[in-house]
Amino acid sequence: MTKTPRRILLIRTSALGDVVMALPVVRTLRSIYPEARIDWAVEETSASILEDNPDLSRALILRTKRWRQRKSLSALQEMAETIRQLRSAEYDLTLDLQGLIKSGFIARITGARLRIGYHRSRCREPFSARFNNLHVQTRADTHIVDQQLELLRPLGIIEPDRRFQILLRREDERHAEEFISRLNRRESGPIVINPGASWPTKRWPQDRYVALAQRIVDVLGFPVVVTWGGEAEGRQAHELVRRAGRGVFLAPPTDIRQLAALLSKCRLFIGSDTGPLHIAAALGVPTVALFGPSDPHRNGPYGNTSRILHSPLPCSGCYRRQCPDPVCIRSIRIDEVFAAVREIV
Length: 345
Description:
By secondary structure, the protein is an alpha/beta fold. 39% of the residues lie in helices and 16% in strands. It is globular, with a radius of gyration of 21 Å.
């Protein structure tokens, strides 16, 4: 690209963990192009993690789930307004970090002169490559953070900034500090267990989390906080806390920003491949990550403060949301998770 881009649009709409892992892209762009307008097209459910980000000019909120479900006049009007904003912004560069037909279409309707995306062999939906006009071939065996940063190569950027920017608001930190101060052991940060996951195949069995929490309290003496999001996860977390008993506490209701503040105060995070795991890793919190159908080499917590537990199988990396026998996640034993916890704390 001969001209310095002045108006840039990043497209990484969801999910929360994937949005977090795209943060080094905007950090790098801002360091290279300090005067550029840098916007981010993101789903409403993940947008709050981008709030107050100094590297970002604006988050363009998408509500595609609402548009699909309601199909009302107001939904159509909102969709039309979003398209108008995309066109009127006059972006000269788009970066499709997702490789979906949806993300490719967003890039195309901007009318940007340069639209960078993955080679079709690396796109989750290969047809999406047709919407971009410069394609980058990345290696399948590299981490998704590095794959996304590879899309900056056509801009001459070969030494990216791999830092994650998540700004914590003071009111959210106070919310976390007030909760932690009420725990039994105030002088040490708690260990967080996040048992939920949007995919059933990513969920480690509940009874093992119960046994793990009890062992952490009895042997290591640290309080355990169980985090959750949504009503279904809340019920499961409440049951886990009830069964685990002494020293195990239910986290208060939190939004994404409050959850990030709470995780920043904890000693260690334990959970599967979910948004909270990647938020914790981005904040520099040590993690013990339990991986089932997703590939930890590609989707694991980024950085060197983590322990990843994964049982390689012939079907590993299948990325199946449903499975009649999710042996991959069930094969992770309580003893090896506890050993990883003990090694870190």
